[in-house]
Q: What sequence folds into this?
């Protein structure tokens, strides 16, 4: 029982690290929707993604083909990572272009909202599968106790759901943070693609620069807030 609890803690930690990428993706994708639809889109997208991850877990337990070569030197896992990395790169660059150029989709309002809603949920599910494929394979390698893996997935789902909303709204209120987050997604997309090409990139090389850049941006935002407050006091005086 002690070993199971230790493994559960380890897997929850792995899932929470994965959750950082998920929160960024969800924040950017859901930001394309009206405010009243964002909560539902987050919950439905994450719930379906969690279900898809559990289904993938059982498929991997039943089949070993995901790590067998199918095309040249690439496995099914590699192909998924290559496709997911390219899609994330395309999506992040496209969103940066829309944000900088202040462009909106040209569809009629009602149709646009409906299509965006379905597209956002679909993209959350697909990219969650891409993000989670390595963690699921790792989890299976660590333990054959399905309840431990499923519990870790559910706990990470609750954690991501709890933080995705506040972090997402914060990103949307600050365009500079949004652009920074999209830049992180480009880095993550490149990393996923390189993993598919059998080139391992240590996560520390990604998260440390991301954390430092975010810290600098927060300092800049603090400086701007203090400067505006000082100017306001001087004008009133």
A:
């Amino acid at each position: 029982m002690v070993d199971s609890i230790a493994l559960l803690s380890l897997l929850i930690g792995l899932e929470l690290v994965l959750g950082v990428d998920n929160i960024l993706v969800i924040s950017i994708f859901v930001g394309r929707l009206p405010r009243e639809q964002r909560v539902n889109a987050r919950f439905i997208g994450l719930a379906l993604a969690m279900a898809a991850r559990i289904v993938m877990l059982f498929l991997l337990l039943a089949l070993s083909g995901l790590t067998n070569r199918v095309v040249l030197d690439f496995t099914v896992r590699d192909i998924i990572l290559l496709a997911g990395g390219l899609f994330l790169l395309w999506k992040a660059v496209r969103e940066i272009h829309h944000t900088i150029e202040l462009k909106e989709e040209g569809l009629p309002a009602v149709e646009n909202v409906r299509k965006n809603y379905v597209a956002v949920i679909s993209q959350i599910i697909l990219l969650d599968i891409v993000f989670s494929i390595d963690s699921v394979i790792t989890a299976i390698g660590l333990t054959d106790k399905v309840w431990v893996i499923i519990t870790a997935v559910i706990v990470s789902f609750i954690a991501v759901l709890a933080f995705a909303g506040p972090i997402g709204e914060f990103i949307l209120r600050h365009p500079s943070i949004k652009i920074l987050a999209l830049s992180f997604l480009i880095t993550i997309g490149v990393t996923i693609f390189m993993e598919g090409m059998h080139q391992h990139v240590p996560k520390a090389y990604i998260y440390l620069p991301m954390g430092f850049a975010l810290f600098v941006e927060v300092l800049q935002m603090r400086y701007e807030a203090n400067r505006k407050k000082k100017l306001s006091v001087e004008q009133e005086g």
Notes: Residues 203-237 form one domain. Helices lie at 2-30, 35-62, 76-101, 109-142, 146-173, 175-196, 204-236. The chain has two domains: 2-201, 203-237. The first strand starts at residue 69 and ends at 71.
